[in-house]
Amino acid sequence: VDDPVCLADYERLAEERLEEPWLGYFAGGAGDERTMADNVEAFGRLRLRPRVLRDVGDVSTRVTTLGLDLALPVLVAPVAYQRRAHPDGEAATARATAAAGTAMCVSTLATATVEEVASAAPDATLLHQLYVFRDRGLTVELVERAVAAGCRAVVLTADLPVVGKRERELRGAWALPEQEVPAVAAARARGSAGHALSLFDPTVDWRYLEELSSSVDVPVLVKGVLTGEDAVLAAEHGAAGVVVSNHGGRQLDGVGATLDALPEVVEAAGDRLQVWLDGGVRRGSHVAAALALGASAVLVGRPAVWGLAAAGEEGVRGVLEILRDELETALALLGCRSPAELRRAHVAPA
Amino acid sequence: VDDPVCLADYERLAEERLEEPWLGYFAGGAGDERTMADNVEAFGRLRLRPRVLRDVGDVSTRVTTLGLDLALPVLVAPVAYQRRAHPDGEAATARATAAAGTAMCVSTLATATVEEVASAAPDATLLHQLYVFRDRGLTVELVERAVAAGCRAVVLTADLPVVGKRERELRGAWALPEQEVPAVAAARARGSAGHALSLFDPTVDWRYLEELSSSVDVPVLVKGVLTGEDAVLAAEHGAAGVVVSNHGGRQLDGVGATLDALPEVVEAAGDRLQVWLDGGVRRGSHVAAALALGASAVLVGRPAVWGLAAAGEEGVRGVLEILRDELETALALLGCRSPAELRRAHVAPA
Amino acid sequence: VDDPVCLADYERLAEERLEEPWLGYFAGGAGDERTMADNVEAFGRLRLRPRVLRDVGDVSTRVTTLGLDLALPVLVAPVAYQRRAHPDGEAATARATAAAGTAMCVSTLATATVEEVASAAPDATLLHQLYVFRDRGLTVELVERAVAAGCRAVVLTADLPVVGKRERELRGAWALPEQEVPAVAAARARGSAGHALSLFDPTVDWRYLEELSSSVDVPVLVKGVLTGEDAVLAAEHGAAGVVVSNHGGRQLDGVGATLDALPEVVEAAGDRLQVWLDGGVRRGSHVAAALALGASAVLVGRPAVWGLAAAGEEGVRGVLEILRDELETALALLGCRSPAELRRAHVAPA
Amino acid sequence: VDDPVCLADYERLAEERLEEPWLGYFAGGAGDERTMADNVEAFGRLRLRPRVLRDVGDVSTRVTTLGLDLALPVLVAPVAYQRRAHPDGEAATARATAAAGTAMCVSTLATATVEEVASAAPDATLLHQLYVFRDRGLTVELVERAVAAGCRAVVLTADLPVVGKRERELRGAWALPEQEVPAVAAARARGSAGHALSLFDPTVDWRYLEELSSSVDVPVLVKGVLTGEDAVLAAEHGAAGVVVSNHGGRQLDGVGATLDALPEVVEAAGDRLQVWLDGGVRRGSHVAAALALGASAVLVGRPAVWGLAAAGEEGVRGVLEILRDELETALALLGCRSPAELRRAHVAPA
């Protein structure tokens, strides 16, 4: 694969260039990896219903969601330890999203501070993904720094009160590179002990969301919502949006595909919440399907890592360009001039 | 495979005789080629319900649709660049359809003029497939020439406002053989520039259909209709028929199989439109199933190319004869003396 | 496989011992052989619902249907040309069914006369399968001879007005062994010409059934009924029973599995017809499932041929004994002391 | 697999260490082994619906059912002949369940007396699995001895009036090791003859359950219930609980997966019966799914044997620890602090 044509090409390139244990870290999921596979397969269970003979001489992929003006409705999902995928790490990803006109969600487990990412990519639109440390003071500090660095939203990850059972990781004798993660280093400096992931607080609940939402000036999204019930609670406790996510199948295997959960979340959200989705997006037509079902945007995690591992910033940009081109084609072939014209009737169960 | 027994035998012969990139061109579909595969698989999801002890001593496969009297309800779909499958190209295909008593739809991207095809096969029943050039004058000219050459209908392709992402084609460094396509040469002569496929107009809409229908004396069919909604619009804007088609899975991957879309189109069409179908027809029993669900005829694209690549005119004739024989057997075994006796009750979901 | 444990073991033995073209003849089906495979798979789509703590100290597999008292509700289906499977041919099969306490349906295309079969196995319970010759006088004669030889029912095959497209047969250059079939020889002697299978009359209809039923003193069954509609017609035209059959998938590929068709036939039959089934029965639990859905008996064709090819009479007996033992076990484990206790509630969709 | 991470690792270890015919004995099922496979696959057909932002800082896997206080809702199912899996046999299993804080159900076909098991593992919580011998006096004696040895419940196996057709066993020329089974030896000493499994009484019915329930001071469960109808009868005849079980797919192939039967049994049981389930449990998330559907506990048979074969007591303990850890993680990720918080809404059809 010299000249990648689709995201699967980037996946193959990444598999060639990444070494264990990091290949396993980025590629793996929890348990039997059924949920991880199902995220992708779910898109194959829908069928698209194209409309014809509509003037599509001028098609735009641009959207606005939660105040973000995006050239394409595909953000880069929070992915930890990006320097393990490529020496340029998060900075490369941020520059690529800026070039593509979209946004990046910087992980709490980034291998760079949010300030470093922001200064490496001044044009980038950044969001801040939040794991809540048991050390709540540190958590407040991280959020404040992120907002000060220009992050446009806080994405509170709700599906990792404990870490999922990722067997590819368990089979190797290795530790997460804590020393490379500034947030973990900060926790250590403030006296926290234990494994990096054990620093996070499993008691976080909806009241915390309410406090967080009322204490920051940017929108807060809850990431990891898979039910209509939780979408209602998110709206009631101050969220501006939710991300329908199962953490890329890395947390609880057996959970349904995000695309299958999307309709009930959209219905429960009504006008109160923006609904984003991640998990299994590999094609522009997948983006169109998710938007037709009511999502405002999607995020890609592993595909961004594939691009990063394959060719750094240029690789991430390549991934985003493929998705943009594919989405543009899909919109035209569905008879839509823009994502806003996508309707539920553009999809049907397969 | 010396003596082909079924269409799959012709497919294997064609795979032996065609070389890349043309094998990939004719065989490939868009994206992950799911829609292309699903077109075939959809026939396997139906089950036939045969009726017994009906006198089937005399079975005919003959049908009439849109004024065409066909010895079998299987036309040859428009396929571009047929000289790349066999030196005799469209002329061979036309002669084979004449021998079989059916009709051929000549592509705008044919590697012969419609006049050449008509004169090479004076007994052939021809239809004209239309891509609308940005140069509308040229488009008018092409339609007029086709009708003058005896084409009995215009088949307006509606599902190619932009070209689908056909990855087999993208992986090779080659260009479409524009120089062999008279219509493209004519566009060039009139000053059009750019890739061959970029000469087509993505702004074509239902008003264009209305203009076209009122300006020609032959029936106009819209090819690429996959929804009941668009069937209604086709009827309202002057079409005499629609072809339920996803362009053989070459345009938007993820679109449903044509057989799955057929019932809603038939229901919406009512008495106002003839409904034809292409995509995935590989057996006479498939023809019977489509007709039982309300189609008046089907078209075969790739199978005709397989025959053409395998043995020129004789190969296309062989393909059509197999389909006729299989359909005759299927009709008898369903308890029908003719296609007109096929009813919805002859099929059920598998 | 020295000591066959299940029918699949006999299948493997038969595959070792039969040679082409006869292996293909007995094993093959029509078209893509989907219906043939689906007959078996359909049993896997049901789930059995066993009842427990019922006294099953004494389980019988005996049934009565259409006046036949059978030690197990599994007859041997009509299979042509049995001497091509084993030199002892139909005589061996008849003796095996007598030993097992069940019945054999002798094919019109048997490689022995019905009188020869009857005298070779005086204890056998025989039925006569009927293909209707264009020479109706010969047909009358064959039926009269069969009844005179002791056949207890006539099984009118309704699903072969023309022969299905069996591609394994078409690929070899061979002819059916007409000279070995007394009925065909008789037709020849009376002046009929053409292929053996072309001697049969495709114009046979429900009126013929009525004539036949009123002219013979034994029950007439219609074999090849797959719809409720035809079950009603069979009852109205004098049949005593129907066999839900798709000719082992040898006639029209794409037809549904017989087990899937069974419920609608049973419902339409009501009390007026006995319903038998063939196709895909490979286990005693399959027999139980068919009976739970309302069949009174099932027939096995290929499994009998496997036994015959493997070991002549002993092989057919082995096949029937396995089915009896498996059925007995299945009944006990379903909580039934006899087939009569099987209810629709013993099965559910999988 | 040096350091087993999941139950499948233990399965591979057991396959390496067990030899035929015992590998086949423990691993095999009845017939085509569809039910055996379906037990596992059924868990993959459900999807879990996790709830987020619930304080799961303190998660317990502890449950109480039928007076048993269990550290995790996973018991070891009755498995015969455990000394054929490991020289330490049932004693090792009992000690492992004690260490894990759960219970073991000792088989009538144990290769140790219940007294030996109890004294080898004084802390173990034991139940007694009962096959009813034709020699009812012996049966009474076995039950009395079990209760006297401290067994906390009697588990009456109802799905083995006759033995299923286990073809892996039939293909080898070997006999069950009767001499190692004290209960069989006792039957022999009292004059019973015939195969070990033929010593059991196929006439046992609901009245027997009533007698048994009223004659022992511990709860009686009926194992092998797969229908709501039988759950009602179990409640009416004195059972305290039922085990939804198909004997690990070893009895009647074609029976549905236990997970698929669970909802109807739970609904029929209402408050009158505790419902347990065995069959196909391979993950902590499977335990959670079964409990969400209304089971109070599950049992594992083959996984315990894998642990036993792999490493004796330590292996069984390893298996139970993996299940406990996985269940704890699953509960936290479903938003539950304990099994009691699991609700039907935590699962949905896949």
- Rg of Cα set of chain A: 19 Å
Oligomer: homotetramer
Number of H/I helices of chain A: 13
Q: Percent range for helical residues of chain A?
A: 40-55%
- Biggest interface in this structure? A-D, 39 and 32 residues
Distance between the termini of chain A: 32 Å
Spans of at least 5 consecutive residues with low confidence of chain A: none
List the strand order in the largest sheet of chain A: 4-11-10-9-8-7-6-5
Look at the structure and give the mean pLDDT of chain A: 96
Strand content of chain A: 5-15%
Number of strands of chain A: 12
Largest sheet of chain A: 8 strands, parallel
Could you spell the SSE succession of chain A in H and E letters?
HHHEEEEHEHEHEHHHEHEHEHEHE
